[in-house]
Amino acid sequence: MSQISFQFRQMAQRMWFLPAAFSLGAIVTILIAYYGAQYAPAADKLPFTVPSNSVVSILTILASSLLTVSVFALSTMVSALASASQSTTPRAVPLIVGDRSAQTSISIFIGAFLFSVVGIIGLSSGIYSEAGRLLLFAVTIVVVVLVIAALIRWIGQISAIGRVTETIDRVEAATTKAFDALSNRQLFGCSVLRGEPSGVPLVADKIGYVQHIDVSKLQRVADEHELQIAIVSRPGAYAAPNWPLMVVMGEVDDETRERLVNAFVIGDSRTFESDPRYGLITLSEIAGKALSPGINDPGTAIDVIGTLVRILAAHKEDDGPRAVKYVRLSVAALEPAELLEDAFRSIARDGAASVEVVLRLLAGLETIAAGEPEYAEVALVTARDAAERARAALTAKSDLAALERAAAFAQ
């Protein structure tokens, strides 16, 4: 994906984007109804005519009611965001903000409101002909149908938006999508980087996190100057003047360095796209929040553990031949140890005193150990660590006995 595509997708997920697009569409529709009337049949040849006051009445009802509905929908969304931030983690809020279904409903309300206001102004000023009013009336009927459908959909959405289980599902979907988007063994179509790279390290011009890498741009620059580039900072990595983004083998002048560094999008925070580790961390934070003394909800932590196991169990490494698309680029593969640490380390720490959480965690790690061979040894090490933490936190003999039975597979 190019930088332009990435930036556009990030912008499209903003809460203001769809309402602005629908509002622009409403204004364009009004203009089409005005100018399109010039090509319509004469008034005496129209199937019927619509009085101006009839259309104004309908538009007035829409304008007055949709203003209230839009404010209510936005306030509901804000409440859902606050609830999700408090009950789960602030890192999950962008997924709720970027929900297309909720954005579409709010956008229809705002767009229809603006359509009604602009239509009333046009009719009151008398700029529409008989044909223009008929076209505007037909569009108004379509807008009414869209508003009714959006209201029905919104009723179903407000019952789920911001709930813990809904937030977990959205983070799971985003994390799974990030894994699926990383083709070729999560190497972005590059060859695998083995060992320490040699060459000239290039660093970012600002401090932040790598959000996206335009590997096609790196390949073009590498072809032009016959370079070999080792990408050492994947999406999600911390970028700073003392942390290299890449190591380049070959002659690099200032202009080439700037072009290479600009292929990396550096932002203030991590994103879910191309960064599945961020999704695992977010799910782990949701479990940690649930296990805090103020909430004390081990059931949510158990739900998160099941979700993490499902994601990691579905993440299979392809052992077959790999088609390398960008032959001059290499990047380190995702390490199973890092993935399991992101997913389970904090849960093992925060849930050590809850035997139910520990037992479910050990059962999930046993499932992972029995699946993908590359994860087997790491899962066993993680299970031993979780069991050790639980032994230090649990006091009841029955809990300790259940712990030893569950941890027997890791001995």
Automatic annotation (TrEMBL):
Q: Which UniProt keywords apply?
A: Membrane, Transmembrane, Transmembrane helix
Family matches, as InterPro entries: DUF2254_membrane (IPR018723)
Keyword Membrane applies: yes
State whether keyword Electron transport applies. no
Pfam families assigned to the protein according to its UniProt record, in alphabetical order: DUF2254
Spans through the membrane: 16-35, 55-84, 105-128, 134-155
The entry's protein name is: DUF2254 domain-containing protein
